[in-house]
Specification:
This protein is of the alpha+beta class. The chain is built from 4 helices and 4 strands.
Length: 105
């Protein structure tokens, strides 16, 4: 038996950040640009761009920026902190659910 959970952040009933956006940021980091990240995640460039911009707007901060040569997209320090915080939150929740799983008859 498993306990499943999914967490995300909302503001005004609209998603700010969650597993999908986390995956998108990680794909941008590994691929170096939004187009390749979108392909890696089997989503359209337009959908990826829309989600990224919506999160930036709702958070009130930039999550990506262009490199000095303007050919690569890199994560901002704020985006890296958000990823670390979200990953830590996921791990903590998983530990709690695992502890409770052992208490369920």
């Amino acid at each position: 038996m498993e306990i499943k959970h999914k967490i995300w952040m909302e503001k005004g009933g609209r998603v700010i950040f969650g597993p999908g956006r986390l995956e998108l940021l990680k794909a941008i980091e590994s691929c170096g640009n939004l187009s390749a990240a979108a392909r890696k995640l089997n989503m359209s460039y337009r959908a990826a761009w829309g989600r990224l911009r919506a999160s930036e707007k709702r958070l009130g901060m930039r999550l990506v920026e262009l490199s000095d040569n303007k050919h690569e997209m890199i994560l901002t320090e704020e985006a890296r902190k958000l990823i670390a915080c979200f990953d830590e939150m996921e791990k903590s929740i998983s530990l709690v659910t695992e502890a409770y799983l052992g208490k369920i008859p």
